[in-house]
Every structure is written in structure tokens, then in C-alpha cells.
Amino acid sequence: MSKIDLSTSWNFDAAPESTSHIKLKKQYDLFINGKFIKPKSKKYFDTINPATDEVIATIAEANEKDVDLAVKSARIAFKSWSKLDSKERGKYIFRIARMIQERAKEFAVIESIDGGKPIRESRDIDIPLAVNHFFYYAGWADKLEYAFPNKKVDSLGVAGQIIPWNFPLLMAAWKIAPAIACGNTVVLKPAETTSITALKLAELIQDSGLPEGVVNIVTGAGKTGTAIVNHPDIDKIAFTGSTNVGKLIRKSISGTKKRSTLELGGKGANIIFEDAAIDQAVEGIVNAIFFNQGHVCCAGSRLFVQESVAKTVVEKLKDRISLLIVGDPLDKNTDIGAINSKEQLATINNYIKIGKKEGGEIYQSKCSVSKKGNWCPPTLFLNVSQSHTIVQEEIFGPVLAIQTFRTIDEVIEKANNTPFGLSAGVWTEKGSKIFKLSQELNAGVVWANTYNQFDPTSPFGGFKESGIGREGGLHGLKAYLKFE
Ligand code: NDP
Predict the structure, then answer these.
(1) Is the CB of 381 under 6 A from ligand 1?
(2) At the N or C end, where does the chain have fewer CB atoms within 10 A?
(3) Tens digit of each residue's pLDDT (9 = 90 or more) over 321-344
(4) CA nearest 477: which of 73, 36, 93?
């Protein structure tokens, strides 16, 4: 039977999401002690739309003095917030959850404009999950003694929280919700390229009536992050970002009483056995590596296909990626949006160059994109082995390295041969294989016949260079409590 050539016979009309309902300011200040204030640094930087190269707004750059003010305000607020009846604490957090839900469409559109991700993802994944994190931890606020039976628990104090640019509002929710549910107060720094939804959250927090100083949001780049890490009056650092910066943070706080959770990079193995439902597995491969342009710590960026089905899987995968729509993040048909920044695009292109130079066979889908903005087509690399740089290092883009295997022991050995240990996927119809792999793969999460599924009730975190500690679920609460 001849194949239908979907790539040439089908064209979608543009289906742009409306932007008429969003409110953006030209300039954003720091959110300290419940108010927006100008930075003592007197400096601002531009935040750019990665799909158009246009400046969206200017954002305040916090220096050490600004961070100090934010920490002081969090310390003062801690005295009353930690003593507040826990039911009341829970009510505030429920209110924040509901208010994000009410403004979900505005948050989704802004997330796509500022970060480049497809509106389908910010609308259906990022924002609903952020809401769910607030709901989930709001529920625990007055039940901590049931969460940890027979233990007396107490809040830690002031948490310094630093987040990356790949899931801006969601990462803010991961950090803020459990911290304040446990009676702590926070100073949070979003990533330089994606500060706006955190600042919109600050506006919403102001409207929610949350007591002043419980949540402080300071913007800036790495230097602002360093000022938070080195501040002497911070009790805990919660960091999500690259392994290199995670190592720096670990060094800076060693010898201090500061606690830390570090959620770092990954190089997830996605394993397809010959008995898997192949068409579903191909969809799973696409979701694992091309979700959010591959800017995902747990992305399935190393594909292992059992030799007997490798040819079929690769053919189907090539066909499938030729249909992926790369382009305007605000178009509801878009599958792959803009790469978050020019710097990240340069990093990805450099890895593609290295992949080719080291002998990898590249396959990229043909897609036409705007001259403005940062774009990378979905990219496959065949003919690579364990020692290739693109197999070992995290690329954080839509680039998949494909290898084959013959036996279950071989694939376990190969999958574990990485400095990281964050995530893996297994595709098979045999429960016994799923159980064996989920025990023997050295990864914080192993998905079976699915990939990139997230839930606030479930702990998330890695082994080895993927970090220390867990976020989400009860583990996420534990990281913000002292046990007596
Ligand atoms: P970075 O480590 O570069 O940045 C993370 C955050 O730390 C940003 O806010 C950044 O500021 C700030 N920062 C940079 N330098 C320092 C410093 N010296 N001290 C303190 N803070 C600093 O990571 P990316 O933003 O590039 O994010 C991508 C990385 O995050 C990937 O490796 C990915 O795997 C990982 N990640 C891990 C997750 C997990 O749960 N394990 C989830 C999501 C991402 P700025 O950006 O403003 O310069």
C-alpha cells in the first residue's frame, strides 16, 4: 500500500492564540516586602521574545543590596508566617492556586511569548501543573503531622530559590508552594531570559493578600543568584539548573549551615524493545525529546532501539518528524516553538557540529522558519556510540542520539553509562521487563510506555550529577522542614 505523503498534501491555516487579554508592563521592578520597588543597582535588562527578537519589557537587575533587602523582608515575615494557624496558611495558598487558574490564559500566552514554548504546551501543561502544585501543597499546609506521623516538624526559615528558563512559572510553583505551606518565607530568582511570569505571579500574590514579605521575587542573572547563595541569613538553597552551577553552589555553601536541594541536568535513556507497540513508542520518542524544544532536564535524549525493530522505528520516526510544525509559539498548531535564547541556540548548533565532526549521521526535518527568532529543526543522529560527545553531554535542545541494542543486560549497561541519573523510559508489552528495568536503571524516574508525565504528588529528582534531593510529593515537603 502506498504511503500518504502528509508533509506535502496537508497545510494548516494559521491558528494564532489571541493576545488581546494579556497585560504587560514596559518595565518590571523587584517584588520585595509585598511591593514593587526600583532596584538599588539602578540597572534594568531587556527580556526578548525568542520568536521575533523584539524586546518585550525591561526587567530590574537586583544587586547584593537588593538581595539583602529581600532576605531581610523574608526574615521579618517568617516570624509571623511560621506562627500563623496552618489552616490560614493553607487558605492563602488555595487562593493563589485559584487565582492562577482564573488567569490561566494570560499566563499561558505570556509564557509562550517570553520563553518560546508552543501555546499548546503552556496552556495544557505548564500552567495547569503550576496550579496543581499550589493546590496540592495548600492541602498539606494544616496536615503536616499526618504527612510525617510521630514526628515533630518545624519550618526551616528563609529559603533562597533559583530557577531555570525552561518551565518558568511551573518551576516557581515547585519552589514556592511547598516552602510556604511549611511556614517558610522565600526569596526567588527566575532566570534572566524568562522573568515575566514570575513577576505576574508577584502581582497576583499582591492581589491575593498574602502577608508582605512571605514571597519576594528578585530578578537578574547569575550574579543575583550568587548573591542569594552567599547571603548569610538564608537557611536553605533550592536550586534547579545546570550541573555546573549546581556544583558551584554546593562548593559555596559547604561549611555553612545552609541546607540545599539541587535539581540538575540529565541525559535520559528512552528504551524501545521489539515487543513494544511501535506506533505508540514513536509518539513517545517524539514527546520525550521534542516536548518544549528539548529544553527539558528529563528529556529522552538518548534513544535505544532493539536491533530487530531499529530500521522500522527510525523510518517511522523520520516520517513523523517531517510532520512536526516548527514555528510561531502562539500558533495552536505549532509542535516545536522557538529556542529560548540566542546563546542556547549557539550551544545546540555547536553540539550538532560536534556530532557531525565525530562521525554521526544527521537527519533533520525540512521546515521553513522566520528569519527572525531562534529556531532549530527536530534533529536525529544515527551512527553514534557511547563515547560520542552528543551521547554523553546534555544538549538541552531538539537533538536525539539514536543507538541500538540486542539484549536487556546490554541496554541496562548502556543506559547507565552516563554521568547523569534523572530519567528513563521503557517501551515493552512485558511487565517483567518493566520491573527489571525500573529497578536496574539508575534514574530518579522511570516511565513505562509513556514519557514526560508529571504530577505534584510524585517526587522528582536525580542520582549522580543530576542532583541531590527530591521535589514534589511528600519528599518535596520534607525538604522544607526541620524534624525534632
Ligand atoms: P543555569 O544553571 O545556567 O541557570 C539556572 C539558574 O541559576 C538561573 O536562574 C541562572 O541565572 C542562575 N545562575 C547562573 N549562574 C549562577 C551562579 N553562579 N550562582 C547562582 N545562580 C546562578 O541553568 P539553565 O537556566 O541554563 O537551565 C538549564 C539547566 O537546568 C539544564 O541543565 C537542565 O537540565 C536543568 N534543569 C533541571 C531540572 C531538574 O528538575 N533536575 C528541571 C529543569 C532544568 P540566569 O539564567 O539568569 O543567568
Answers:
(1) no
(2) N
(3) 999 999 999 999 999 999 999 999
(4) 93
